[in-house]
Amino acid sequence: MPYPPNTPLGRFGVDTVTADPHRCVGTIPAGGMVNPLTGTPTLAVLAMLVDHVAGLVNHIRRAPSEWTVTSELALELTPDAMRHIAEAPDEPVFATGRPFGPRTDTALSRCELTHRDILVGTATVRSFYIDAPDEHIAYPAAPPDATPPTDLADMMAVRAGTADDGSQLLHQHPDPVLNNTLGIVHGGVSAAALELVAAAAVNAGRADEPLDTASLRINFLRRLHTGPDSHYRGTAVRIGRRSALSKAEAIDTDGRAAILARLTAYC
Q1: Nearest 10 degrees: CA dihedral of 119, 98, 7, 183?
Q2: Would you give the end-to-end CA distance of the chain in angstroms?
Q3: Of the candidates 30, 18, 42, 12, which has an alpha carbon nearest to the alpha carbon of residue 202?
Q4: What per-residue confidence (pLDDT) applies to 147?
Q5: Least CB-packed of 42, 155, 158, 210 within 10 Å?
Q6: Taking a C-beta distance cutoff of 8 angstroms, is the pair 237, 261 a contact?
C-alpha cells in the first residue's frame, strides 16, 4: 500500500506490505541518500521505516478509544549495512515488525531490517497509549503536476548549518507534508534528522575514512512544533581512531528540547 506524496510516508516512498496484529511489513528506498551536512552516504531514512513499521505494530493493539505516541526508538545496524545497500541502491529495505512482550499501558515492538534478504539491522519502538484525540489534521492537497523532491534535504525541508561551538545543525523549516495527523513533525522525520546531525558531528573532517552509524537511540520528550528557530543539533562526545559517540537534540520553536538522541559509529 503506497502512500500519497502529500503525506510523510509518501514523501519518503514508504510502502506497507502487511499490517495485522501479529506482523507488519513495510519497505523504503534507502540507497543513494546523502547527508546534507557531510556529502557522504547515509542510511538515516531507515529510522523513518522503523518508526512506521514498529510503531504500527503497537498502534494496531490500541483500544477503540486510544491513540499511540512513540516514546523510544532504537536502531542497530550491521557493520556492512552501508556497503550492502550501496551495492544495490535501487532495491528497497524491508522491515518486518512484531509485538515484543505483552501490551499494558505501554507497548514494545521489534523489527528486523533486510535488504535482498540479508539482515542489515534490528530495531525496537516503545509506545504509550493516550485517549484518542477528537480531531486529526488533514494533509494538504497535492498539486496534480507536483514532482516529489528527491534530494534528502528537500525531502526533509531542512537547511544545513554550523553552530558557533562547532555543533552540526539542521534547521527544520515548516512543511505540512512532514507533519503527522496530530499536526507535529512526524517522528520518523525527526529521528532521521537526528541521525544526520549526530553522524555529521563525529565525521567532521573525516571524508577519507568516515565513521558509519552502528546504533541510534532516541527518546521523544514532547511534541516537536516547527517555526523560525526549530532545529536539530548534533555534538560529538568522544571521537577515537575507529569509534565515536555523539549526542543530538531536536529543538522546537520555543527553544525547548523535544527529542534527544545518542549515536555510536565505527569504521
Answers
A1: -130
A2: 37
A3: 42
A4: 73
A5: 210
A6: no
Asked if residues 186 and 180 have their Cβ atoms less than 8 Å apart, the reply is yes
The mean-pLDDT minimum among 37-46, 85-94, 206-215 falls in 206-215
241-266: per-residue pLDDT in tens? 899 999 999 999 999 999 999 999 99
CA distance 34 to 50: 19
- What was the pLDDT predicted at 143? 61
> 231 burial class (0-12, 13-18, 19+ CB within 10 angstroms)?
buried
SS (H, E, C) 239-252: ECCCEEEEEEEEEC
Fill in the DSSP letter of residue 158.
Answer: E
Cell of residue 120, nine digits: 542489515
- Grid look-up 526549530 returns 230
Q: Give which of 17, 26, 44, 16 is closest to 155, Cα–Cα.
A: 44
> How much is the pLDDT for 232?
98
What are phi and psi for residue 127, nearest 5 degrees?
-130, 155
Q: Is the pLDDT of residue 215 over 70?
A: yes
Q: For the CA atoms of 66, 69, 72, 73, what is the dihedral angle to 10 degrees? A: 100
Tell me the DSSP string of 170-210: EEE---GGGB-TTSSB-HHHHHHHHHHHHHHHHHTT-TTSP
Nearest to 155 by CA among 177, 186, 133: 177
pLDDT digit string (tens) for 122-162? Answer: 999 999 999 987 667 667 776 656 677 889 999 999 999 87
